[in-house]
Amino acid sequence: MTHKKADTALPAAAANSQSADPAADHQKTIDNHQQAAAHHTEAAKHHLEAAKAYAEGNVEKAAHSAMLAWGHHAIAGEFINDDAKHHAQMLKRTNYR
Q: What parts of the chain have a pLDDT lower than 70?
């Protein structure tokens, strides 16, 4: 089985997102959510592959699929964290209390 790498890059550091442009802020949030969802979707596929492999008694394949799933969850978490930092910066700029 060949694993196809997701066509995504890790999120840029939140410090690179100092835009005061609301459209850019919204697009960054949209992009972060889409990327996180894409990686969670990939993770779900690998979890299902792992479950099937375990049911078939193929423990090595199941472990490999599980590791791939966890990797995608970790990458999704990076996008989620980036989005949280981005929202905090947006609130700071607006002096939200």
A: 1-20, 97
Say how many domains are in the chain.
1
Cβ count within 10 A of residue 70: 14
Decide if 3 is inside a domain: no
User: Mind listing the pLDDT tens digit for each residue in 29-52?
Assistant: 999 999 999 999 999 999 999 999
In angstroms, rounded to a whole number, what is the distance separating the alpha carbons of residues 97 and 12? 26
CA angle 73, 79, 85 (to 5 degrees): 135
| 12 part of a folded domain | no
- Cβ proximity of 6 and 28 under 8 Å: no
Which two structure tokens, joined as six digits, stand for 34? Answer: 């889409």
pTM: 0.70
How far, in Å, CA of 19 to CA of 90, rounded? 9
Range of the domain at 79: 24-93
